[in-house]
Design a protein that fits this description.
The chain is an alpha+beta fold and 257 residues long. The chain has 3 domains: 9-82; 90-157; 191-256, no CATH class. Helices cover 54% and strands 14% of the residues. The protein is built from 9 helices and 7 strands, in the order αβαββαααααβααβββ. It has helices at 9-26, 49-60, 84-94, 96-124, 129-157, 165-170, 174-186, 195-203, 211-223; strands at 32-33, 64-72, 75-82, 193-194, 228-231, 245-247, 250-256. The strands form 2 sheets. Strands 4, 5, 6 and 7 form a 4-stranded antiparallel beta sheet that branches. Strands 1-3-2 form a 3-stranded antiparallel beta sheet. Helix 1 crosses helix 2 and helix 3 (84-94) packs across helix 7 (174-186). The radius of gyration is 24 Å and the shape is flat.
């Protein structure tokens, strides 16, 4: 039981699933309604029950942050956007790498439990000892083979993005920028990363980074085809326009790998 909510394990699993669904939706777009309003989409179905708990958890853990509040027909409508911490949370809990990691742990538990199970079976079914031993040997061989494949997949998932040494010297945060974009994509993002989000993620590790240096570095990365920059795709005014870049007569606002 969760002492804060009184929910059992199954309810917590459902709440966490709703949280991941909401963060996945938040990855695609600059900002979103926190709750569904009528037929208009929101990250969570409503304020009550498990959807409300998931939304509260996302805000409390700084996975989502408020951007503005609208008043419509006497009701307040909250708008939010995903934070770098939210992107990292989604990557760690919902990416292919996270799933593979859980699978690896299950395989290890299964492998360690098989000998005990096999010993009990042999004592109860001595006449079938030879057959069981043969079957379990084949089963263990399959487990070992699958474990090796999982380990290889995890090693590939952990490969760091490449960046020329000359660029790393002039853009000390370049590798982290590429890694964040990769983690974001692995977490399920289909839309390009807004520059304000990328800047906020980098400032967590490079607190002295300025917007000017950020823009200069992005231009170098784009010129070397390490990233792709794109214009603002949303309607209306650009949110946080101070992060947008004017280049070649265009206003760049998002980055992708």
């Amino acid at each position: 039981m969760d002492r804060r909510t009184g929910s059992d394990d199954k309810e917590l699993e459902k709440r966490d699933a709703l949280l991941l669904d909401g963060l996945r939706a938040a990855l695609n777009g600059e900002e979103h309604r926190l709750f569904r309003v009528g037929k208009r989409d929101g990250l969570f179905a409503g304020r009550g029950g498990l959807p409300g708990e998931a939304a509260e958890l996302a805000l409390r853990e700084n996975l989502l942050e408020h951007t503005r509040t609208e008043t419509e027909r006497g009701a307040d409508i909250e708008w939010v956007r995903i934070t770098p911490a939210g992107t990292e949370y989604l990557y760690n809990h919902d990416s292919p790498r996270a799933v593979l990691g859980e699978m690896r742990d299950m395989l290890r538990q299964a492998a360690s439990g098989v000998p005990v199970w096999q010993d009990g079976m042999l004592k109860s079914l001595e006449k079938l000892a030879s057959h069981i031993t043969t079957e379990m040997t084949a089963y263990m061989a399959k487990l070992d083979s699958l474990a090796m494949r999982v380990e290889e997949a995890l090693r590939r998932a952990d490969v760091s993005p490449e960046l020329a040494a000359s660029l790393q010297t002039v853009i000390p945060w370049g590798l982290e920028a590429l890694a964040y974009l990769d983690r974001r994509k692995a977490g399920g993002a289909t839309a390009a990363c807004p520059l304000p989000e990328l800047f906020a993620a980098l400032r967590n590790k490079f607190p002295t980074l300025t917007i000017r240096d950020f823009h200069d570095g992005l231009k170098r990365l784009a010129d070397n085809q390490a990233i792709r920059l794109a214009e603002y795709a949303g309607g209306g005014a650009i949110p946080q326009p101070e992060y947008a870049m004017m280049q070649a007569g265009k206003l760049w606002y998002t980055a992708t790998r």
